[in-house]
Design goal:
Mean pLDDT: 96
Distance between the termini: 15 Å
Radius of gyration: 15 Å
CATH architecture: 3-Layer(aba) Sandwich
Strand order of the largest sheet: 3-2-1-4-5
Helix content: 55-70%
Order of helices and strands: EHHEHHEHHEHE
Shape: globular
Strand content: 5-15%
Structural class: alpha/beta
Number of domains: 1
């Protein structure tokens, strides 16, 4: 069984069909279980708004991308940001190195990774997250 932790960069690659799209969709389709932090939804919705409304000034594109995003998000199990995440960051110095939101993602992924019988696949295009994910023993796309 393949379990993937979905980072915002990975999800947005599908949504906006960027240069990583083919690779991203391949992994997406191969994963049996998709998990992430509730932060994924927050970051993704903000990015969709900024791109469609603030950059492109296109309300119809915004509506279309919001609907696509909702469909993608429905496939992902999302963990709430809670005291468990705070303790994970408190107890692992490696999780204090990245930017705050990336730390939350990595702490959440690390919690999932420790609960699994096999390694979690970290699905991210963020180089710093990938580096720290490797240090924490996660598989990387």
């Amino acid at each position: 069984m393949k379990i993937g932790y979905i980072d915002t960069s990975f999800l947005l690659s599908i949504l906006f069909e960027d240069e990583n799209y083919e690779t991203t969709i391949k992994y997406w389709n191969e994963l049996d279980i998709l998990c992430s932090s509730l932060l994924l939804e927050i970051e993704s919705r903000i990015n969709v708004f900024k791109y469609c409304i603030l950059t492109k000034n296109n309300k119809s594109l915004y509506k279309e991308k919001e609907e696509q995003l909702q469909e993608l998000l429905e496939n992902i199990n999302k963990k709430n940001i809670d005291k468990e995440i705070v303790l994970e960051i408190k107890n692992f110095d490696k999780l204090k190195r990245p930017k705050s939101l990336d730390s939350i993602h990595l702490a959440t992924a690390n919690i999932f990774n420790k609960l699994l019988n096999e390694k979690l696949l970290l699905c991210s295009y963020d180089k710093n997250m990938v580096k720290i994910g490797k240090e924490l023993g996660m598989e990387i796309i």
